[in-house]
Specification:
The chain is α/β, with parallel strands linked by helices. It has one domain: Aldolase class I (TIM Barrel). It has eight helices and eight strands; from the N terminus they run βαβαβαβαββαβαβαα. The radius of gyration is 16 Å and the shape is globular. It starts with 12 loop residues before the first strand and ends with a helix. The structure holds D-xylitol-5-phosphate (DX5) and zinc ion. Zinc ion binds next to strand 2. Keywords: Calvin cycle, Carbohydrate metabolism, Cobalt, Isomerase, Manganese, Metal-binding, Zinc. Its cofactor is Fe(2+); a divalent metal cation; Co(2+); Zn(2+).
Length: about 240
């Protein structure tokens, strides 16, 4: 059965990006990474229009859906956005996030995602201000901070993302304190064992990692090492 909101319950989550998986063995790859401890499967959709790369769509999402029971976290790097929302919902996506620059009506697109029974997320490129959040807080389930420019796996983490994560954390905490719903703070791009601790300390609770996980021969070992760093960062900042 497809997962629901309870999948948001662990305090921190690791979301391997299948962009760096072996596309010829995708079913086996997602099963293996979930068996190794992945909390979500991050699914990067690129259209050679919004970003200069072309990847996978709803048919591939539907194909991997029966292989795993964790949430499928669809990251849309496409323009326009709305046409694909019902298609991904039907394909078994649980979370659908998009870039605010890629849609004419951000509020409407967030509503559309939720109307289709999915959690809704906004993605912020390195130079995109967080202001897009301010008037749609009640429609957000995920805020995704890009720590690389979108389009490719295996890029280096941009340090400016740490300040943006702290800023997003403060906005989310203020909202929750005022009685607002839970909003996950996700980070995507260049996340490795050696920087995940400081990223956690900056406020992220959900960590996308593509090349770091799928480029490692032992998925359980690398996910375990990431969790250890996350736990250590939690202890230090507590
Ligand atoms: C980039 C994608 C990322 C990417 C992350 O546009 O959104 O999800 O796959 O890959 P790594 O972890 O290799 O930077
Ligand atoms: Zn992504």
């Amino acid at each position: 059965m497809p997962p629901t909101m309870s999948s948001f319950s662990p305090a921190t989550r690791i979301a391997p990006s299948i962009l760096s998986a072996d596309f010829a063995r995708l079913g086996e790859e997602v099963r293996n990474v979930v068996a190794a401890g992945a909390d979500w499967i991050h699914f990067d959709v690129m259209d050679n229009h919004y970003v200069p790369n072309l990847t996978i769509g709803p048919m591939v999402c539907a194909a991997i859906r029966p292989h795993v029971d964790v949430p499928i976290d669809v990251h849309l790097m496409v323009e326009p956005v709305d046409e694909l929302v019902p298609q991904f919902a039907k394909a078994g996506a649980n979370i659908i996030s998009f870039h605010p620059e890629a849609t004419r009506h951000v509020d409407r697109t967030l509503g559309l995602i939720r109307d289709h029974g999915c959690k809704a997320g906004l993605v912020f490129n390195p130079a995109t201000p967080l202001d897009y959040m301010d008037y749609v807080m009640d429609k957000l389930d995920v805020v995704l901070v890009m720590s690389v420019n979108p389009g490719f796996g295996g890029q280096s983490f941009l340090h400016s993302a740490l300040r943006k994560l702290r800023d997003a954390r403060a906005r989310i905490d203020r909202w929750t304190l005022e009685g607002g719903q839970h909003i996950a703070l996700e980070v995507d791009g260049g996340v490795k064992v050696d920087n995940i601790g400081e990223i956690r300390a900056a406020g992220a609770d959900t960590f996308v990692a593509g090349s770091a996980i799928f480029g490692h021969p032992d998925y359980a070992a690398i996910i375990g090492a990431m969790r250890e760093q996350i736990a250590r960062a939690g202890t230090l900042s507590a």
